[in-house]
């Protein structure tokens, strides 16, 4: 059967474990990330300081799966060495919004004058801080940090109003590598 191969370089300060056929555990100074790529029809193996990725199939789809797996593992390595931070801005023009973190959720009160607060559930492994008009989401897993930022944006989405006039909400304005 035909296959595509790719290689991901492993830095010295990162430990990568592979359990057949495609389960990966990446350990670094900031923590541990685990992910299973078995659903993608891939085989992973470690050869010295490189991780070999083998995806079965040919053509554009196999090449796309190979690139996705290599990028995901690269993001895992970057996450355990440096981390990720997304910054969101609280925009309010009609009503003063109150935002606070309670446990594993973000509570938005008085959003467009609503009586009941909007509660946004956040995934485990993500740290959220509210500083003035900024909401800072940070963590080691890029997928979870992006998921939390997306849930916050979607949780403050305005419906049934003129979006040109009602710009209230919480929006992502900066994505960076590194924890702050």
Q: Describe the biggest sheet?
A: 4 strands, antiparallel
How many structural units, i.e. domains? 2
- Can you give the helix content as a percent range? 10-25%
Return the structural class.
alpha+beta
Alpha-carbon distance between the termini? 47 Å
Alpha carbon gyration radius: 20 Å
Biggest sheet strand line-up: 11-12-7-13
Q: CATH H level of the largest domain: which superfamily? A: Ribosomal protein L6
Low-confidence stretches: none
- The residue-averaged pLDDT reads 94
Stated plainly, the CATH topology of the largest domain is called: Outer Surface Protein A, domain 3
> Number of helical segments?
2
**Count of extended strands:** 13
Overall CATH class of the largest domain: Alpha Beta
One letter per element, helices H and strands E, the order comes to EEEEEEHEEEEEEHE
- What general outline do the C-alpha atoms trace? elongated
Assess the beta-strand content as a share of residues: 35-45%
CATH architecture of the largest domain: Alpha-Beta Complex
């Amino acid at each position: 059967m035909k296959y595509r191969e790719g290689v991901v370089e492993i830095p010295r300060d990162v430990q990568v474990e592979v359990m057949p056929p495609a389960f990966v555990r990446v350990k670094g100074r900031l923590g541990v990330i685990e992910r299973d790529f078995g659903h993608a029809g891939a085989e992973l193996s470690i050869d010295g300081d490189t991780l070999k990725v083998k995806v079965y199939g040919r053509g554009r789809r196999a090449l796309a799966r190979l690139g996705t797996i290599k990028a995901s593992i690269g993001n895992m390595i970057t996450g355990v060495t440096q981390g990720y931070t997304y910054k969101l801005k609280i925009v309010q023009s009609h009503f003063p919004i109150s935002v606070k973190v309670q446990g594993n959720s973000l509570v938005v009160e008085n959003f467009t004058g609503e009586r009941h607060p909007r509660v946004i559930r956040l995934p485990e492994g993500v740290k959220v801080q509210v500083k003035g008009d900024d909401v800072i989401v940070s963590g080691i897993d890029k997928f979870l940090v992006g998921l939390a930022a997306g849930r916050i944006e979607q949780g403050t989405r305005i419906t049934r109003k003129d979006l040109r006039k009602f710009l209230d909400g919480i929006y992502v304005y900066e994505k960076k590598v590194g924890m702050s």
